[in-house]
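User: Hi! I'm working on a homework problem where we have to compare a predicted structure to a textbook description. Could you give me the structure for the chain below?
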Amino acid sequence: MRIAMVGTGYVGLVSGTCFAEFGHDVVCVDLDKDKIERLKKGEVPIYEPGLEDLLARQIEAGRISFTTAIADAIGGADAVFIAVGTPSRRFGRDADLSYVYDAARDIARAAKDYVVVVDKSTVPVGTAGEVERIMREENAELDFDVVSNPEFLREGAAIEDFMRPDRVVVGAESDRAQKIMREIYRPLYINETPIVFTKRETAELIKYAANAFLATKITFINEIADLCEKVGADVQEVAKGIGLDGRIGGKFLHAGPGYGGSCFPKDTAALTRTGQKYGAAQRIVETVVSVNEDRKAHMADKVIAACGGDVRGKKIGILGVAFKPNTDDMRDSPSLTIIPILQQEGAVIAAYDPEAMPEAKKLLSDVDWQSGPYDVAKDADVLVIITEWNEFRALDLERLGTLMKEKRLIDLRNIYKTTDMEGTGFHYVSIGRPEVGGAGQEILREVSNG
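Assistant: Happy to help. Predicted structure tokens:
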């Protein structure tokens, strides 16, 4: 089948490349001329493991192409996917749908024959209906259907998620549109992937409800971690104990500094706003949003407490600034809250991230960016792990100890075992577990209660 992908951001580029891998003829369109020229050469503007190689294969096979002319992309297409950005508005929690609606107008003007228009961008309930209204207003003679097909891609594992998804959700209200969507996802039928066909509004809400639920699980275990620290329990054992219950499951029960990224913050905010708009307040999710924001600031307090309650003039080494490993995405990363607070308290910051430093340099000032974890550790009073990149999982602790001014390690991702830290000489602080070799917990309690 012939597919047009409007937008070559994270979702559009991954989806277009994977559809090409399925054997479809894909044309990706974007207004950014520089980006299109780079993509034609096989240069990927985002960091996603495996994407560059996969794209190169599709270009060589002639199954994917790039253009800035939407009419060229849409001509002869069986389906046109809208995969443009839907960021939160600067002043408010509403999703900005202007790019989606602009794309709808462009498609209506360019299309000549029947086409299925697919909302792939994450959009609030009712957006598919509004896209249909806009397109009919723009071109009353056009024969088309609008479908909702939300994405469920995890940054860092997007290709695997697309090729072997838990499910595919399609909101399509005509047999004709359903038939085309079945054909597009036919390779997944062979793998017995569940394909859920629903009304458009249901499909739109499934996306927001799924992300809000996962964000709630993260926030729940983070609050349990705080309680563990007070009562002397181990949050990882608690998570394992409850996660073995099939009704709960162990995924997303990993205590840490709070969620970030392109999806959870934006989608939880949009869901709460939708609830307010329709008079069905999402109070649990509203609380999750508030608690998560407080969580990030609390992590800075944790670092300060581990340093004896004062970080003025101290060098703090930061390992990882992206919101999660295997991505260069800095959106709503906990580091964007933690680092400025430490700087305000007088700390000197050195940092390293394997992929996110180019973007982080635009967002964080007065940071001494280094080329590796041991460069960061040199003369540091404390080392703080914010992002659990694999290269931080087996650090040479003896080497670190010889480089650092003080042997303090704050592990905000619990990637080390407390038993392994015993006898190393490090004051080791993690999340929701007993400290090793230090008395900072009492100070942290004072900070928290103050």
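For your comparison, note the following. The longest strand covers residues 2-6. Residues 2-198 form a domain with the Rossmann fold fold (CATH 3.40.50.720). Good luck with the assignment!
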